[in-house]
Design brief:
The complex is a heterodimer of chains A (371) and B (292). Chain A is of the alpha+beta class. Chain A has nine helices and 20 strands. Chain A has helices at 43-51, 93-103, 108-122, 137-149, 167-184, 195-201, 219-224, 229-234, 271-274; strands at residues 4-13, 17-27, 32-36, 58-63, 66-67, 78-81, 155-159, 187-192, 204-209, 212-217, 241-249, 253-257, 260-264, 281-286, 291-293, 306-315, 319-326, 334-339, 349-354, 360-363. Chain A has a six-stranded mixed β-sheet with strand order 6-7-8-3-9-10, with helices on both faces. A five-stranded antiparallel β-sheet of chain A has the order 13-12-11-14-20. In chain A, α2 (93-103) packs across α3. In chain A, 39% of the residues are buried. Chain B has one domain (63-286): MetI-like fold (Orthogonal Bundle). Chain B contains 13 helices and no strands. Chain B has helices at 5-39, 57-62, 66-97, 104-116, 119-130, 135-142, 157-182, 186-195, 199-210, 212-227, 231-236, 248-258, 262-286. Classes of the chains: A alpha+beta (371), B mainly alpha (292).
Chain lengths: 371, 292
């Protein structure tokens, strides 16, 4: 197993289409790293550069201290699982899994042993003689994983492997891949556009946008301490709410946006960072889960009352997502998450408070987090 | 089953729609086939009024006719020589044309051009190329080889025509393979690359099996085309020299329209039809078209 190091990796298509604008990521041995971002952010390109399927335009890529920029995919000792499985349709499951080993001239008994072991782990033992078309999507995905498994590579690469599966199967396979990671103690790099997949699977998450690495951090750190507005909005579901306003100073600092106004207590330690913004516009971010109905929640340290008007309520079972607007700001919709035992109705007016320990502020222009 | 008046009305309309092609097909395809089968049992000479029924006599005579036996041999040699080479060449050309090469469109056109050119025209061009003072011999002379007169030499005439046919048809079949190649997902090649396959292994282990349905189609059409080869023979060698290029179609033509022995010619055409049928059946049995 191996470390992977990306040093200022760049990908340029043609003359001026820059897909990856200098990625620095360090992946430790046995780590499960997820590359996540919206479509077109360059996450798959980055993975394919690691695989050797895309040329590296600039920068250096190391696998275990060895620079592999110019090595062909087969010499990098990596295995990859593709989104559409990329199984060889004319070969049986056994042959699909054995193909790489055969090409590498492994002994017959060795191939058989490895394929059977992998099939056992993935529950494919009884399907070894089937062709891919005789199998379901989930089974095919297992074969694709098996094909990577038998090779015992230094690094496993996954390119959106679950996006062709239905929701239930996706959750199941997610857990299986995670279990496999524990069992194999392998370095895995996983691409997805689904932030829930990223949060639940990754030891470390690399958030990308427009070819730039936005932040590299643990899932909880990304959630609690996003580096900028993009990461804050991308990680977490439903997404973080953003409200534009300004900082005013009376007795203490206050955030003001229309009729919304609340004080920012000094003890939070945000004053130093917010002072330069007094009288200026900035963006306030708050997660749907950190807004509470004042009548129902009193254990938290909440801000002053704010009046909100509920527009639509989406019950999803254990909880509800309630979409609302602040009084006087009919054109902006925000989300607030509540326990589904509170059955709110549309057009209801309620008093809420913000958990003041969870206030986040972003620069309006650079979108970098201020506090 | 009794049809309601509305259903009857619909059926009448449907028949009206297919009536025209049905008549064309019937008159120019079904009827001639049946009629040829019918007259193969008669001594049917265009110039003689009397056309007596002779039973299988035409067929018996065919198998004692030295020229007919030669024509079978020539046809088989021709087919065995042309089909595998043209198929392989078409696949290789398609594979190359499927790469991102400069001038790809030009080469695709260049290879396909012979297929859309009249076979008579290409044949006449090749008569010149193959002649004693022709282009081929000129090129050979550059490397110090003295060529022969390719089309009047019984040892080379058939092979010369075979080469021409390979050249004209492989471009045509290249298009079929190209379509097949383009339907192979790129990710299969990427997976194979990561699995450790080099270019040759990718071609042999991925491309060839993946285009099998197209290969089947190309071989069937190739076989039928070769068994029926006529126009190049007619233009370039007229079956000669000394019957070295007489194929079954040309034999049929000679007997039917030169010697006016239509019954005899029809019998040879029926035998050719059976051979083609048999060859296609064998191919279906041993090289199934199974798609993945």
């Amino acid at each position: 197993m191996a470390n992977v190091k990306l040093k200022q990796l760049k990908k340029v298509y043609g003359k001026d289409v820059i897909a990856i604008k200098g990625a620095d990521v360090s992946i430790k041995d046995k780590e499960f790293v997820v590359l996540v971002g919206p479509s077109g952010c360059g996450k798959s390109t980055l993975l394919r550069m690691i695989a050797g399927l895309e040329e590296i335009s600039e920068g250096e890529l190391f696998i275990d201290e060895e620079k592999v920029n110019d090595l062909s995919p087969k010499d990098r000792d990596i295995a990859m699982v593709f989104q559409n499985y990329a199984l060889y349709p004319h070969m049986t499951v056994f042959d699909n899994m054995a193909f790489g080993l055969k090409l590498r001239k492994h002994k017959k008994e060795d191939i058989k042993r490895r394929v059977e072991e992998a099939a056992e782990i993935l529950g494919l033992s009884e399907y070894l003689q089937r062709k891919p078309k005789e199998m379901s999507g989930g089974q095919r995905q297992r074969v694709a994983i098996g094909r990577a498994l038998v090779r015992q590579p230094k690094v496993f690469l996954f390119d959106e492997p679950l996006s062709n599966l239905d929701a239930k199967l996706r959750v199941q396979m997610r857990i299986e891949i995670k279990r496999l990671h524990k069992q194999l103690e392998a370095t895995m790099i996983y691409v997805t556009h689904d932030q829930i997949e990223a949060m639940t699977m990754g030891d470390k998450i690399v958030v990308l946008k427009d070819g730039y690495v936005q932040q590299v951090d643990s899932p909880m750190n990304l959630f609690n301490n996003p580096a900028n507005k993009f990461v804050a909005g991308f990680i977490g579901s439903p997404a973080m709410n953003f409200l534009e306003g300004r900082i005013e100073k009376s007795n203490e600092l206050e955030f003001v946006s229309g009729l919304v106004r609340f004080g920012i207590p000094e003890k939070l330690g945000l004053h130093e960072k917010l002072k330069p913004y007094i009288g200026k516009s900035l963006i306030f971010g708050f997660r749907p889960e950190y807004l509470y109905d004042k009548e129902k929640e009193n254990s938290k340290e909440l801000s002053v009352d704010m009046d909100i008007i509920l527009d639509v309520t989406e019950p999803v079972g254990s909880e509800s997502f309630n979409y609302f607007h602040f009084e006087g700001q009919e054109d902006k919709t925000f989300c607030f998450r509540s326990d589904s035992v509170y059955q709110y109705q549309g057009n209801e007016k309620i008093k809420v408070g913000l958990d003041i320990n969870r206030l986040r502020f972003f620069d309006k222009k650079t979108e970098i987090r201020i506090a | 089953m009794k049809l309601s008046s509305k259903q009857k009305q619909q059926a009448r309309t449907a028949y009206l729609f297919i009536a025209f092609p049905l008549v064309i097909f019937g008159v120019f395809t079904f009827f001639p086939i049946l009629f040829a089968f019918f007259i193969s049992f008669f001594d049917w000479n265009l110039l003689i009024h009397d056309k007596p029924f002779v039973g299988l006599a035409n067929y018996f005579e065919l198998f004692q006719d030295r020229v007919f036996l030669i024509s079978i041999k020539n046809t088989i040699v021709y087919t065995i020589g042309v089909v595998p080479i043209q198929t392989l060449l078409a696949l290789v050309l398609a594979f190359i044309m499927n790469q991102k090469l400069k001038g790809r469109a030009f080469f695709r056109l260049a290879f396909y051009l012979p297929a859309v050119t009249s076979s008579v025209v290409t044949s006449i061009i090749f008569v010149w190329i193959y002649s004693k003072p022709g282009l081929l011999n000129y090129l050979l002379s550059l490397i110090g080889i003295e060529g022969t007169d390719w089309l009047t030499n019984p040892g080379t005439a058939l092979f010369a025509i075979m080469a021409l046919n390979i050249w004209t048809t492989s471009g045509y079949f290249m298009i079929s393979f190209l379509a097949g190649l383009q339907s192979i997902p790129q990710s299969l090649y990427e997976a194979a690359k990561i699995d450790g396959a080099n270019a040759w292994q990718q071609f042999w282990k991925i491309t060839v099996p993946m285009v099998r349905p197209v290969t089947y189609f190309v071989i069937v059409l190739g076989l039928i085309g070769c068994f029926q080869v006529f126009d190049q023979i007619y233009v370039m060698s007229a079956g000669g020299p000394v019957n070295s290029t007489t194929t079954m179609s040309y034999f049929t033509y000679n007997n039917s329209f030169k010697f006016f022995r239509l019954g005899y010619g029809a019998a040879s055409a029926i035998i050719l039809a059976f051979i083609i049928f048999g060859a296609t059946w064998l191919q279906k049995k041993y090289l199934p078209s199974e798609a993945y």
